[in-house]
TrEMBL record:
One of its GO terms (biological process) is DNA strand elongation involved in DNA replication. Keywords: DNA replication. Residues 32-172 form the DNA polymerase delta subunit OB-fold domain. The lineage of its organism: Eukaryota, Rhodophyta, Stylonematophyceae, Stylonematales, Stylonemataceae. This is DNA polymerase delta subunit OB-fold domain-containing protein. InterPro entries: DNA_pol_D_N (IPR040663), DNA_pol_delta/II_ssu (IPR024826). Gene3D superfamilies: 2.40.50.430.
Length: 243
């Protein structure tokens, strides 16, 4: 175990609580959030059009539909919308309440005991004018890194393909919006670190308490060969699953 020099001073960094703008004030249980998704769709629509034209260079600009309701049967086009993944195995609090009423089921386990993904899952694309189920080809390789199983609810994407007579949209490609420009990181004269931890699960008898002890020893610098490096750790963030 390393010897800690009492004269070593821990690194300090200025900290601004910008997260407080996300704090929930008065709880309004009747509020709906669908408009948030549609606002995001409208803000990203033009960016997605540009991204689609860059990804599919042979695409004509008039092939990108302003609204998915304008897509025609059998004609290749690009539609832009929000993905929704319909998962039959995923628990639904509304279905449980409709079934049990006030005698609700006990709290669900902290960790899922089974996967909710299944071959019966269906992806649906929606915008302000409606929804259309997506039909993916058997040869998933043509979609490269954006295969069906990697797509989740809430993503705003452009989808290339053609509407079928069955009311489905046969997918030939999926295009996300590119990453927006990021602010330049701060430059420090000396190294400084942030420790991010999760899964401590205090009070859970199935979790080995040694994990928390090792974390404490590490933060104190007693579990490292070079304790002076530990004192460059300026902040600790608990990222979830504390209890």
């Amino acid at each position: 175990m390393a010897q800690v020099d009492a004269c070593v001073v821990r690194k300090e960094l200025a900290y601004e609580e910008k997260w407080r703008r996300f704090e929930l004030g008065e709880r309004k249980y009747g509020q709906q959030y669908s408009q948030v998704y549609f606002n995001r769709l409208n803000m990203m629509r033009e960016q997605l059009k540009k991204a689609a034209l860059q990804r599919w260079s042979s695409l004509q600009e008039d092939s990108i539909m302003e609204r998915m309701v304008k897509a025609k049967d059998g004609v290749e086009s690009v539609i832009v919308g929000i993905l929704f993944k319909e998962m039959k195995l995923k628990p639904s609090i509304l279905q449980e309440y409709a079934k049990h009423g006030a005698a609700m089921m006990p709290n669900p386990p902290r960790r899922a005991e089974k996967l909710y993904a299944d071959e019966s899952d269906m992806l649906i694309l929606e915008d302000e004018t409606g929804r259309i189920p997506l039909e993916f080809p058997e040869e998933r390789e043509i979609l490269k890194d954006l295969r069906e199983e990697f797509l989740v609810s809430g993503l705003v994407v452009a989808v290339k393909g053609a509407k079928t007579k069955k009311g489905l949209f046969s997918v030939a490609g999926v295009c996300p919006v590119s990453v927006l420009p990021q602010p330049s990181p701060s430059i420090f004269e000396d190294d400084a670190y942030v420790c991010i931890v999760s899964g401590l699960c205090f009070g859970d008898e199935t979790v080995n308490p040694l994990y928390a002890d090792l974390l404490l020893e590490t933060l104190k610098g007693a579990a490292l060969a070079d304790a002076t490096e530990n004192f460059k750790l300026a902040h600790v963030i608990v990222a979830g699953v504390l209890v």
